[in-house]
Specification:
Blueprint lengths: L9 H4 L2 E4 L10 E5 L4 E2 L3 E2 L1 H10 L9 E5 L8 H11 L5 E4 L2 H13 L11 E5 L8 H11 L5 E6 L2 E7 L7
Length: about 180
């Protein structure tokens, strides 16, 4: 029993482990290269013109940036176009992916999370932190849930003081 008036941190005594996705955020500028402006009449990509674009663009402007390649126009873009862009960017960019900014963010989080030893959460009651100063794509929450569920005793979402229960491992019945 605690003396009258003593403040007790029940969250600290709860045994909850917080998994903070913000700790896995990869710093750096995110950039989208949309090749719609390289399309002839907004419809097709001409190889000769595109190769000239690749040759005359200063790709060093993408130094240490995380780049997503896309085409926002409703056009069929040959796969080799994205491959040529990747080759041009590779000496400069930190990351090059095909997709949206959200796809890029998901890729960066997945790469960062690939180094986690998930077994350290064996038997733990884990709170996957919900508030963050950076945007965390929903796909990342899904992946973390998928990785933690097999090892954790329980999963919650939110903050230690206010959680939404997600999963609780059932106690094995003894026979």
């Amino acid at each position: 029993m605690h003396p009258e008036g003593e403040i007790v941190n029940r969250v600290a005594l709860s045994g909850l482990v917080t998994f903070d996705l913000e700790a896995f955020y990869t710093p750096g500028e995110r950039v989208v290269i949309d090749i719609k402006n390289q399309l002839y009449q907004g419809l097709i990509l001409k190889e000769k013109d595109f190769r000239e674009f690749i040759k005359t663009t200063d790709w060093s402007a993408y130094h240490n940036k995380h780049v997503a390649l896309t085409c926002s126009a409703d056009a069929i873009v040959p796969t080799w176009a994205y491959m040529l862009l990747t080759i041009a960017l590779e000496p400069f960019a930190k990351t090059v992916i095909f997709g949206s900014v959200d796809d890029l963010e998901t890729h960066l989080f997945f790469k960062s999370l690939s180094s986690v030893d998930w077994s350290q959460y064996a038997g733990a009651r884990v709170v996957i932190k919900g508030c963050s100063n950076v945007r965390v794509p929903e796909a990342v929450y899904v992946e973390v849930t998928r990785k933690l569920k097999p090892v954790a005793a329980g999963l919650m979402f939110g903050e230690a003081c206010s959680t939404v229960p997600l999963y609780k491992k059932s106690k094995a019945k003894e026979t």
